[in-house]
Each structure stands twice: as C-alpha cells, then as structure tokens.
Amino acid sequence: MKKIPCTNLYQYLSLCFIILTSQVVLIKAQRTIDVGALLDFTSPRGRAGQAAISIALEDFYALNANYSTRLAVHVRDCKQDDISAASAAIDLLKNIRVQAIIGPRTSTQAKFVSDLGNQTHIPIISYSATSPTLSSDHTPFFLRTTVNDSSQVGAITAIVSHFGWHEAVPVYEDSDFGMGMIPYLVDSLQEINTQVPYRSVIHSYATDEQINLELLKLKTMPTRVFIVHMMSDLAARIFSKASENDMMSAGYVWIITDSIANVIDSIGPLAINSMQGVIGVRPYIESTKKIADFTRSLKSRLRQENPNIDLPEPTVYELWAYDTVWAVSMAVENAQLPDEKEWVSQIGENSTDLGRLAVCKTGTRLLNLILDTAFDGIAGKFHLVDRQLQSSNFEIVNVIGKSYQQLGFWTTQVGFASTPTFTASSVLKPVIWPGHSTATPKGWQIPTAGKKLRVGVPLKDGFQQFVKIERNKVTNQTTVTGYCIDMFDAVMQSLPYYVPYEYVALEDGDGPSNLTYTQMVEGVYLKKYDAFVGDTTIIANRSLFVDFTLPYTDTGVQMVVPIRDKRSTSMWIFLKPLEDDLWLAIILLFAYTGFVVWLIEHRSNVEFGGTRKQQLLNISFFSFFTFLGIPKERVLNNLSKFAVINWMLVAWLLEKNYSASLTSMMTVQRLQPTVSDINELLKSGEFIGY
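Predicted structure:
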C-alpha cells in the first residue's frame, strides 16, 4: 500500500472542503419555489402538457443557470370534471402551499379554481381555458396565457360575409366554455345582417341518440350554414354522426372554431375523414426553428414516457404551456420571494377545507410581475393585456384529405390576406366544400322533408310565346316553356338560396282550362297553389287577393285598326306640297330676277340684246334655266352675278322643301288610323276583338 505524504493529504482535504462548501452555498442560493399544475391525465392532451412543462423547465434553466430560484412543479390530475379539479387545487393550496397554479384545462374547471385563487391570492394561469365568461373583473387572480374565444368572432363573421350567407346556426357545447362565445358571435353576425334562426345546444356528455335527434332537427331546417364551437372530443362525435346522416354532402357549410381547428392534426383519422370540406379558424403561429426543435423533443419525450399509447401530434396548446412556464419562471426570479412562505390563516369558525385555506401575502406581487413579463416566446410575442394573451392574426384552413390546407389569413387591421405578410386581399384560395364540391353553397335550402313550391301556369289557346304547356303522352311528363317561364326560372336561379319548385298546369282534363285569369289568380289566395306565373294583367280587383311582381313587359292597351285612305286621285297633286300664295310668290320672283339681270346686262352684254321679243324671252326663261342649273346666257356684271347667287340659294331651299313635303304627302300622311281614341269606339258601338 502506497503512503500519501502529509502535505498532499492536507491539500486533498482542503479541496474536498472547498467543493462541499461551494455545493452547500449553491444549494442554499438556489431557492425552490413550489408551483402547482392541474392536468388531465385521462386525455392525451394532459400528458402532452406535462411533457411540455418539463421540457420548458429544462430549457429555461439550461439557458439561465445563474438564476437563484428554481421552480418545483407539483402535478395533480384534475381529470375531466369540475369537482376533481377543485379538489386537486385545494390539495395544492392546503398541503403544498404553492405560489401559483398552472391550469386547469377547461373553462368550466377554471371557473371553480379561479375562485380559489381569488380567495387565497394565488395566481391561476391557464393556457387552454378560453371562455369569455372568465372575466378579469370577477376573477382578478386568473390569468389566461391563451387567446379569448371572442377574438375569433371577427374572422368567422368575415367568412360568412365573404360568401354572402344570410343565415347561420351556432352548434355549441352546453357548458360555460361553449356558451361563453355565442353572444359575441350572434351580435357580430347581426351586424352584417346575417340572421340566427336557431341555436343548437348539445350536452357535453350527450348520447349518440341525442346527437342524432339534434342533427335531424337541423336537417329539417332550411339553413345550411353551421358554426361549431365545442371541445374536440365532442366535435369528433358530432361530425361522425353528421356524416352518417348525409349532412356532410354538397350544399352544407360547416365552420369550426379554434377549439377544434387547433387540434386538427391530432383529432384522429376517423374524425378527419368525416370532416372533409370543413372550414376552420385558428390563431396564426409562424413556423420557426424553435417550434421544430420543441416538436421533436416533445414527441421523443412522449414516446419515452408512454411507449404503449398512440399519442397525438403536438398542438398550439403545448406551445402556450411552454411559454407559460417561462413567464412564471421569470416572474418568480424577479419577485424575490422570501425563504419562508408568508401565509396568513383566515379567521372564522368555518371548519371546511375551503374555510381553512390561508391567504398568500406574496401572491399579488407575483401576479403583477407575471402581468409585466414580456418576451419572444416559442408561440410568438408573450405579453398579457387585460390578463390574457392577445391575438389579432388568424389562419383560415380547409380540412382536406388527412390534414388541411391553408385558404388564407385574417387580421383585425386589414381583413383577409393571402400571405403571412398580411397584405390586404379580398380573395381566398379555392375551397373544397363538403361532398367534394367546388361550387360555393348558397347556405339555404328547402329541406328534403319539406314540400316544393307549387307554381300554377295557365293552359290556354293562343299566345303560346308567353306560356306553352306540352305533355308527353308516353311518359305523361309535362314540359312548361315560354317567355314568362324563362323569366321566373331566371329569378329563382338568382336567389341566394335554393328553392325547389314545380309547375302545375291549370287545365280541364287534357284541354285548356275554362277558368278566367282572375279565377286562376284567386287560386293563390285560396292556397290551391303557392304562386301563379303567366301572361297576367295587373288590375285592381286581382290586387285585392294577391301580390304582383313589378311588371317585366310594357303595359297598357294597344289598338289595331285599319288605316284611313287619304290618297288623292287629282292630276294636280304635284301642286299640293306648296300653298297657292307661295306658288304666286315664286312666279313673281322668277320674273323679278330675270328683269333685274336683264336691266343690268342688256347694255353691255350682247347675249341680252336683240329684238324686244328676244329680250322678253330672255327675261322670262333666264330664272327658269338658272333654277335647272343650265343657264343659257352668261352674265358679266358683278351685280348680276350677286343677284343670280341669291336666286339660286332661294331656288335650292324651295326645291328641298318641295321634295320633303311631297314625300310626306305620298307616304306618312297616308298612314292614318280610322280610329284614334277608344272613346270613339264607345260612341259608335263598333264590335272589337281581343
């Protein structure tokens, strides 16, 4: 055996003492702060939340090893009922005396536990309780590190408005969580003139038979737009039964809120298969390397801890759980909590566990520090406003195949956006609707169990361009055509909803009906049929029984009468276009123009000379030949030329007026009716046809 020198032994003992001392100092410096966590171990989401909390603690203190505090998370199983959650919270507050509680999962559980937080001044921090009923005014120690359900109402309303649906039915869970958002949703829909004719409430633990009865009630209603707000487990059952009842076919619209859309990837293949064509709204979380690394770590941790269980894909709730742990760890470090827990017992004679719960003196300080905490978390910017996480950016998804596809985005600032840069865009990507349809549903339809609209049409002789009824003697099918029918079909097609209807021929046996049009119109009033379409005149007595549409053809009474023959047989008809006085003036103007030109030209122009007889002929025919454009004599004097120009202008105007008047006499004036007023017929007692 080798001996150790005394000097070396002394150095060795000194080193051991220093190491032990430093460890004791380090242990003493790093104070442990007890924090509770309420998780539902009966669901995969609870196990995923526990794994996310563990990973968050490891990552935080690996990055902040110099912090003087360490969180010790005490996990309790709150199951799925409110009593278990309250009992677990009391255990943490009474026996562990935790400084804060993370959880619980549901809004109904959070309502009970938040009351305990108010009583003990312990912050209750839930990353999954989203109901607006959890008001900060009534529960000041309740913090929500997730978004409020009411924040997505704007995105849902924008979708309804974008596709022009005028009615929508909320389908929601009968719980504080399910009912909390509905008043906000209904108010928002009414602002865009979308009616809510019915509210479908389904109990959280409804049986399959109860679900079927409620779905059949919805099926018999005309509205085809349903907005589903409930927990994902109940939603999976709803869509499965809806598929069995043929309510996931063409014409139906299903919109899901973020409580379902957030967990689409983990909802299960059977549920996804029954949700084809569904539109979902959920907060937009940008994909980053941090999220990818966290997802790998979470999957690995879940497989190690639950090797025999088929675990779901990670969701945004695990991201919020991760950020919640970081926020609490930062606040605890800054709170400088005392080594000894400062609790004050409540004074009173109440002997129950609730009555004996003490009040934490440092709870308010820790609460305020959590509210002031802000950092870039794994799920985005972490900052609580009004005691809850804020989100103004939402992603719109369409369930297709085994997962979903992005349709676009919506923000409170710009509305719809086609890219994550949130540049305003009014166009969403094409939607695959239920039944694998690409045609946008009208949102309204007469249910299959309802009756069709019966439209009466007249079977009459004559004027079949308006209404023509043909019957196939082989198939006994009736075909109705005509202008009135085309007009009615076009109106029905333009409606924003589908209305099935059928034409009913008003006939006597196989021949035309003996009913008058007034009697046919009164058939609507007597409820023999629902409407009447045909070449029907709007008159006062008919308007007493039915409402008419606006006229779509020119109305009024037109008369077809013979023309009056005003043709003249006189040989002097060519003189009729001009009055006698005008003819006389023209003759005088002829002579005057010739005389003026002769007077100016005869002294210097040999063509106007000659004997008196020749000069008289020149005066008489000069104006006439000039009028015809073939003047015989050539004028030399400028004054003569001026007189000739004026004469030709007058002659041209007279010729145009004469031609127009003669044409009118020979055509238009001959087309005069023999009767121009219906009163003339009444006075004469003439027979008429119609």
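Summary: The first helix runs from residue 6 to 29.
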